Amino acid sequence: MTTKLFGTKVNRVEDQRFLRGRGRYVDDVLPGPTLHAAVLRSPHAHARIRAIDVDAVLDIEGVHAVWTYDDLTGAMAEPLPLLIPHPTLTHGRTQYALAKDEVNYVGEAIAFVVAEDRYVAEDALSAIVVDYEFLPPVVGIAAARAATNLVHDDVPGNVGARMEQENGDARAAIAAAPHTLTLDLDIERSACMPMEGRGTVARWDPDSARLQVWTSTQTSTGVRAAVAAKLGLDLGQVDVITPDVGGGFGVKINHPWPEELLVPLAARTLGRPVKFTEDRREHFISSAHERAQVQHIEVGYDDEGRILGLDVEFWHDHGAYTPYGLIVPIITSTQLLGPYKPANYRVVFESLYTNTVMVTPYRGAGRPQGCYAMERTMDAIAKDLGKDRTEVRAVNFIQPDEFPYEHGLVFQDGRPLTYDSGDYPASLEKIKKLVGWDEFEQFRAEMAAEGRRVGIGLACYVEGTGVGPYEGAHVHIETSGKVKVATGLTTQGQGHATAFAQIVADELGVRFEDVEVVTGDTRRMPYAVGTFASRAAVMSGSAIHLAAKRAKEKALRIAADALEASVEDLELAEGKVTVRGTDTSIDLGTVAVLSNPLRYAFDEASKAATQFSVGDPGKPPVAEDDEPGLEGKDFYSPERSTFASGMHAVIVETDPLTAEIRILKYAVVHDCGHLINPMIVEGQIHGGVAQGVGGALYERMAYDESGQLLNASFMDFLMPYASEVPESIDIDHLETPSPLNPLGIKGAGEAGVIPSAAVFAAAIEDAEGFPITAMPISPSELFALRKRHAPVVEEVAQRPSRNSSVEEPRDEASRNHPTRSTDR
């Protein structure tokens, strides 16, 4: 029998190619003569364009063309699409492919030059003269809320959207609660840094009037539709191929980027292939950022810490434009609830314009901010009541027998926020054991005896995954017995070629090595959505499973005729269809030959001696409800998202002198339903934790008041090295299968990064004894906080520790802290 592969740690088939430098990225395609493009970007955060002079550019040897907005016509001259409209996004704005009249952030595209090579194209940019009228920039949430200046003249108060949801009466419940507190929290702007930046190559074939585009994207089909619409082409005239992608993390789900339209435009206009490859500075100043929010929380609770009312207001910085709508703040507002069930919940947010790079989803996509708000609230409640932090969480958990659990809210997909499955109490017990929660006080005492300061933190999260509307798959069994699988979403390091092959090999009973998976090629799968929101395994995995079942059903039907047996008596294994209990079998490749009435005698096993098969003279060679070939095609469209969950815990040491933060232990318990490949899931967790460490302790986008990004290079933007991430991560899995898809799976791609800010803030606060309310936090900031809270720090150093967030003395000074509590 073929070994069952689903649920086993199969080595990734992709790795050897990448490790040996044999990957093929956008910059590697079309190695022959190719024209190169460069983009003139605004050096100002806010300015009116009075004139652009490009006359000198065309005199430069090697320059082929230059475009400004005035050279664009038709749909190309219209704003880029608003991908996800929403009724509350009353003032949505998107940029043009090239700036029209005004620039609204440093890095906005103004002119596009195509030359013989990138060096000439870059040099030509300096010959373009732009006459600017400077306008006052709006930088940061505080400036946006003040609305002294406006980013867009027609957007009052810089408010792009205001959205409110409520279940119950949170304000009345808080007013009547025996205990209340308020918190003011802050998360600063950050961004993903994939190894490969954005890149696009295009080639126009005038004979076939067909355009081929290679682009580093997370949505090939989305780019295809945009290119066709903007360039006035039929959809069938455009092929978009996504080769290897060196990381996406969300920034490449936004589409189309200006260059994804301008490169094909140039290729068709000039009749030669054109290439654009983003450099690192361009990625910093002109791609997309995320995270920045200011949060105000009011909560009422009883003596056990049970939340009776939760009222959250936050302000979201969405940058200069809103191409991706309100997905990030909507996710924050709904995923904030995590595994808990507050009796009454109200949330309201404003999404604000600033003269900075636009905001689109970045791994976690609003969930880290929501988790930070909720978990900091849980810690504050525990501190106020003098309870262990795990106890307060436990009394607020949704219980296993309460699923499906309806929150009475609307999720990002426009459907009710309904959790499908989970067991949060079991996860809590696992994480406590994994991190050594109950033994920590003894460890703290031992460290204190050595003059070392340590703290422990815990954070819980729930992650909506597998968001729709659909994904499809095509499974083709070839006459060789090998299986070709195509799905439309893209891959950027997740191990799709391995995990998807495991699903197919199990379903068809073939060798894992005989399954080949292709993703992100519109020639193979013209309709798809994309790779984001931890949806690939749920969506494409389910579609591939269903398509393989269709292929299997056909294979058994054809084999039954050939073997003169009933379908019920057949089984598929080892690449053969066998009659159970006998030695009678037929190769799957032979079945593929028999599936086509028009066949040649190239395969001895097929016994096909003529060009076509005669078959039953009373029936047509191909039935009305059938088609030639041994293939299966299907689409999967879920009724709603499925919800994964998990808990992270960390023990940190804070240096008494330098305030450096060192990770001593990191533990993760994760539930993503049935695991297709546990090794791949653990790899996703490891990568997410590393990214979360960066977001919590190192990475931020630092703008000055004029809108200049001060750290637009790896000299200044700090990313964690291997020495800064945990040497090992203790991982345990819980599997509560989802009832919403045929495989019982949930997504895992973003889980590792979601609780990072919350868990590190909790651990540092536990070590230091004063509130941590803004993230990320650097050693210099921690040092400054120590000076500000010197009396509290001294008291903490002298008193016995306990396993809960350190309680501050309720004196006059404590009212200046962002956390304020009231007992009734």
UniProtKB/TrEMBL annotation:
| Region described as Disordered: spans on this chain | 611-630, 793-824
User: What are the alphabetically sorted keywords of the record?
Assistant: Molybdenum, Oxidoreductase
Q: Name one GO molecular function term.
A: oxidoreductase activity
Q: Which NCBIfam families match?
A: CODH_aero_grp5 (NF040766)
Q: What is the lineage of its organism?
A: Bacteria, Bacillati, Actinomycetota, Actinomycetes, Propionibacteriales
**What's the protein called, per UniProt?**
Xanthine dehydrogenase family protein molybdopterin-binding subunit
Keyword rRNA-binding attributed: no
Q: Which Pfam families match?
A: Ald_Xan_dh_C, MoCoBD_1, MoCoBD_2
The Basic and acidic residues compositionally biased stretches are 805-824
Q: Where does the Aldehyde oxidase/xanthine dehydrogenase a/b hammerhead domain lie?
A: 20-136
